[in-house]
Amino acid sequence: RWCLGGVQNLALPMYGRYTQDLGVYAKEEAARLRESGQRRSVADRSRTLDLLEYEKGRCAKCRICTVRCQKFLISRVGEDWIFLILLGLLMALVSWVVDFCIAICLQAQKWMYGGLDSNVFLQYLAWVTYPVVLITFSAGFTQILAPQAVGSGIPEMKTILRGVVLKEYLTFKTFVAKVIGLTCALGSGMPLGKEGPFVHIASLCAALLSKFMSLFGGIYENESRNIEMLAAACAVGVGCCFAAPIGGVLFSIEVTSTFFAVRNYWRGFFAATFSAFIFRVLAVWNRDEETITALFKTRFRLDFPFDLQELPAFAVIGIASGFGGALFVYLNRLIVQFIRKQKAINKFLMKKRLLYPALVTLLVSTLTFPPGFGQFMAGKLTQKESLVTLLDNRTWAKQGIAEEFDYIGHSQAWKHPQVNVFVTLVLFIVMKFWMSALATTIPVPCGAFMPVFVIGAAFGRLVGESMAAWFPDGIHTDGTIYPIVPGGYAVVGAAALSGAVTHTVSTAVIVFELTGQISHILPVMIAVILANAVAQSLQPSLYDSIIRIKKLPYLPELGWGHHEKYNIRVEDIMVRDVRYITLNCCYRDLHNVLLTGHLKTLALVETAESMILLGSIERAQLQSLLSQQLGRPRRLEYIRERAAAEKKLMSVVSNPGSEDESQRISQEVRFQVRARHSCNIWTHGNTSGFIAEWEEKQLDEQVNFNNCKIDPAPFQLVERTSLHKTHTIFSLLGLDHAYVTSIGRLIGVVSLKELRKAIEGSVTVKGVKVRPPLASFRDSGTSSSENETTELHKLWDRHKSMSLPREHTPSESDEKSQ
Amino acid sequence: RWCLGGVQNLALPMYGRYTQDLGVYAKEEAARLRESGQRRSVADRSRTLDLLEYEKGRCAKCRICTVRCQKFLISRVGEDWIFLILLGLLMALVSWVVDFCIAICLQAQKWMYGGLDSNVFLQYLAWVTYPVVLITFSAGFTQILAPQAVGSGIPEMKTILRGVVLKEYLTFKTFVAKVIGLTCALGSGMPLGKEGPFVHIASLCAALLSKFMSLFGGIYENESRNIEMLAAACAVGVGCCFAAPIGGVLFSIEVTSTFFAVRNYWRGFFAATFSAFIFRVLAVWNRDEETITALFKTRFRLDFPFDLQELPAFAVIGIASGFGGALFVYLNRLIVQFIRKQKAINKFLMKKRLLYPALVTLLVSTLTFPPGFGQFMAGKLTQKESLVTLLDNRTWAKQGIAEEFDYIGHSQAWKHPQVNVFVTLVLFIVMKFWMSALATTIPVPCGAFMPVFVIGAAFGRLVGESMAAWFPDGIHTDGTIYPIVPGGYAVVGAAALSGAVTHTVSTAVIVFELTGQISHILPVMIAVILANAVAQSLQPSLYDSIIRIKKLPYLPELGWGHHEKYNIRVEDIMVRDVRYITLNCCYRDLHNVLLTGHLKTLALVETAESMILLGSIERAQLQSLLSQQLGRPRRLEYIRERAAAEKKLMSVVSNPGSEDESQRISQEVRFQVRARHSCNIWTHGNTSGFIAEWEEKQLDEQVNFNNCKIDPAPFQLVERTSLHKTHTIFSLLGLDHAYVTSIGRLIGVVSLKELRKAIEGSVTVKGVKVRPPLASFRDSGTSSSENETTELHKLWDRHKSMSLPREHTPSESDEKSQ
């Protein structure tokens, strides 16, 4: 340790030069280094080659070639596009395999159900047991392997992309748990989606791939690069799930980011396109499709997709979806909170963790049992089949359904001999609505996008069929008859409801990419925007809701046009009672600060009088400083020293024989051994007196910050920074807290908490806080406020009084005083 | 003036209190203000109403109602969505009217050309004169009214959205010049686009609307809000131009922003959707269309849009478009630079400003004259007609064209009796390529997107027709025959080339929205991404190229995966020789600093020794300080005082008569008048001696910063901030420069210039700079580097030496010194 200190001290003059007259020095050094570096690297390479040639002789050419290839590959591996292609490829494969397994699972259930048609009870057992087993396995597997894999993953990714480190969320274990858990969960046929988990899986893939690639080069260890790659991975996740590259990029941006770097845009597009491409090519290769097309291709007429007079109906879908979306988020949160609050239930469920999933699955699958209640809500259709039928371009209400459908015949499920198709649709919507809200609370890897999407499509279909029944020959009056296309309404409804639940506009794009038709662009856009407007004013998005439930660190968005944000200043919300330590403080101050506060980082100021902010120190660093000062090694050392001193004293006094000496040494050794075992008894023991005294002395010593990591540039704001700007900076830079300074002096601190409170407070108590406290003080100036001037006055006055008396001129103050 | 000073001095104690113990004071004051404010506003309102009722008596109810309505309206007018709807509506109307006028202009030309078919020379005259007159008028009109309206406007908007204030770019004059100039320019039939100018027009609209709305309330004066609205306006501009809301939003983001706030996203979508909707509704209302559909609707088959084996052809289109796009940008820049460099030409053109446009128009229209060379390049088609025929879903190469086309018959233009359709296409591409590059340099309001789009479509068509000729029965082997659709290739080509020129991916979305079909999504995405990859590695985007030509302040993007950016630190690029002023400096220092440097803002530090950064002051502020100190009012005053003193002295000495007194006074007046006229002669005149002495004295006085605007929070970086992060912060916050501090001490400054140099330098000299100069110094530590530690050492040592002598502990430095 002393040696290190010495080196540092020796190094000082050189660094002094480095920082002082670097203007010249840096340029010289730079030129020198660049040249020598170039020469060196060339020399290095040729030397390696020479060496190889000399050493091996025979298969030298081979080896040289290999080395060259290796070098080339390694240099290429660092390029972003290689990484993105690998990521896209991997995710397309994962997505396809997961889809394949899910399809097999669902087929197996159908086969079992179909094979047992002789006995309804056996049929029911098969219908119910299958999903219960799968969901229970999924829940158990996830619980055991990685509980972080539970749920959608989008809220966590949003938090991670904000810069917060969530432990264990990007590990291989989580990856395995998420993929297998998701496959089983979706294979059960419950109303769950794969989109949210795929965002998480893609991020996991990217993180693991990064780790793997870092074996080849050091580029993959850069943090900001990793965050950029994670953002691209989120796009890949959505893109390869829906084969929707553009929608995937936009959706992932809307859902995970607050600020988006356009330079990162191409990464998402590149990877998502590649991934979607491979995903669809796999389908062609597997002979599922003839060529690359959309996932849920529609065949609406192109020449007259909809009439202008149908737009009010589309607007109604949008507004209703907005309310529906908010209700869904509310219902989902209500269920979670209800289960958490009911202590009796909670205790029971906690003990038998797998009971809740099993019970929910039992309930849902019982209700969808096709010969039972399921016959009134197209219960035998899987999610995918429902969506295909809902987006069908035929009209159900007018035409007889059964006779005309010669192909798969899934639409038959909607037609009940006794019950109207409208009733079936309404029942489907209502039942699926609460089922989906309930099912997404099961602790398995699952998303809510797809179920909501299907419900939205059903709702749109309902409105469309009603319109078709109302205007059998279409609305358009002059010329040709253009009948209404209920499938178009389903598209609009799907986009609107999923947009409302997730608070995104890009579901519109996803819908176009999913259906392969963009002819309904204006109705879809109008409905999605209206749905968003309604939903955003009522509830947070589903992901934000989960973030709040899970108590992840978050920053609320500045909502739709809350102008008062522009008027609130940092000085109105900052905490003025900042915990700080001074550069010349003693260990006792450190001790006190650590005891009273609970902040993660502490401000370091020059002195308590000047309050000039020098930097911030992490709590852990301070703790280690303190423990270093008072820790066992130093205690032992002190005791040894003291013992030695006493010994010397004694030997001077009594001058004992040599056997005495050896005895004393052995005693000392014993003493030390004891000390090592029972350090805490010490203070009460024999030696407690002088140890306490020593401690006091140690605490009074000045802190040595030499070996302490100090962040020299904690983020600083000034009093007059607006809330709007503060929010921008916090979300841009992913801050946790920022110090408020006034001309270098620390005067306050703002953390996420205060910011959150300020934003949410003024959102809810809108009428009251439009003029924030102290607002009247700032209407006068724009840039140079009175506060700043005052501070400068003081400094200026101080300097004036300190400077030498000069010849007097008729300055303002003099004029006044005379 | 003294009075003002007095007030400020009086006000000091109060502000002193305000800043000192604000913790308590602020809370009290806030509560008091809030309550009283509330009470007051309620009281105010009721008083107004009472007053009205009392005063008028009779039609009081009416008036109260009016006042209430007015209040309600004013409160609503402040909402963003009202503003956005108005903006969308306005822009849709402008777009439609412009389109309408252009269509009439083009029809008139056709009519003239068609009516004179008896004489080819007259035909030629008509064909050529018409565009020459229109373009010349457009150029002259723009030149006279607002030269800022020239060109696309996107580069300027990009600069404005970075936070730079460009004067006169957002005025009503520019709006008028841009709209009328654009209409005339496009009405001439030259290969020009309306998209870029529409971005500018929409921004103009937003700025003017903002100004207009600010009459109703004060919300519209907030700057960050205005920037957000301008960003939305850019989206509206593209959206209402192509009826492409999604593509418009994305394109405007890619083209104008570096960082994008997702919370601003909905604004763009909302306004652009509304605008596109109204734009298309106007077409329906005008009976141009039966219902709302895409602008260039295609009718490709849905079931099998393309075969997997066609993808290489699409990739080839993408790569070729990338090279083509880069070539276009290069050509455009070359033409501008050539004309600028040729001094003889330049001088001549400068004198006759309208000659250049006229000459270019003459050349282009001569070459497209249909009976002349134009017959080989479909010269008689307007831009819109060309695009419609190029996107046609029939195959030209196989089928006879003439006989099958029963509708408009524009496709006939591509078929020449003697010449192959391939030759026509190649000629069209080549001729239009240089024509467009040349035409966009004409000083009229014009964009390059649409011409490039058409050329791309033609190129795609060429490849498609070749493919169709090569595989007459399609590539797909098993089962049904799916012939190749050359129109699909045209779509891909259009997106790829326009994407390459503008460096955007969102042209893909624009293409889908323009054609109303999304079936070719994967080929389009692949081609666009490849085109971007090629073009971005060769040339800047067209808009960045114009920014550089126009020398607007810009910040280059961090390119595709330049990892070395992560390793360069601010200390490597910062300027260490910072111009600064100290708080206790005298006016002479100010004078010297202003004489030597040319920076817009100067750093204010506490003292030259401590170098603690206190803020930054604008140059203009310092100049006004200096001129205040040495300006005429003070000079005159000094002279008057001196004269009075002399007079008194004289009167004491000689005690003259009353006529002497009056004479002296008249003399003084004359003296003053002279002074007012010839201030600079003074110093050499009679009085020069004591004036020079006075000046010297004034310059030695300490500067009074009281009335000076100081920015208390200039942006600060630390030495170890990476280039990557610096770039992010600069582009996020739109900075012009940032100070580099080390624990409060100013040690350097980084401006856009240095940053630009660092980024571009390391981009071009890629191999060399991978390890930047001085990089080897930093491989050791991660957060606490030696530099910081050194600085802290020094501070700590200073404090230790200043503090009282304490009991010595075996600290590092002591150990070393002993």
From TrEMBL, chains A, B:
Q: Which Pfam families match?
A: Voltage_CLC
Task: Cite the record's Basic and acidic residues compositional bias ranges.
Answer: 790-818
Q: How does it sit in the membrane?
A: Multi-pass membrane protein
The superkingdom listed in its UniProt entry is Eukaryota
Subcellular location, record wording: Membrane
Q: Which GO terms describe its cellular component?
A: chloride channel complex; plasma membrane
Q: What is its main location?
A: membrane
* InterPro entries for this protein: CBS_dom_sf, Cl-channel_core, Cl_channel_volt-gated, ClC
Per UniProt, the keywords (alphabetical) are: CBS domain, Chloride, Chloride channel, Ion channel, Ion transport, Membrane, Repeat, Transmembrane, Transmembrane helix, Transport
Membrane-spanning ranges: 81-106, 127-149, 169-186, 198-217, 229-253, 265-285, 311-333, 354-373, 421-442, 449-471
Q: What is this protein called?
A: 4Fe-4S ferredoxin-type domain-containing protein
- Which species does the entry assign this protein to? Echeneis naucrates
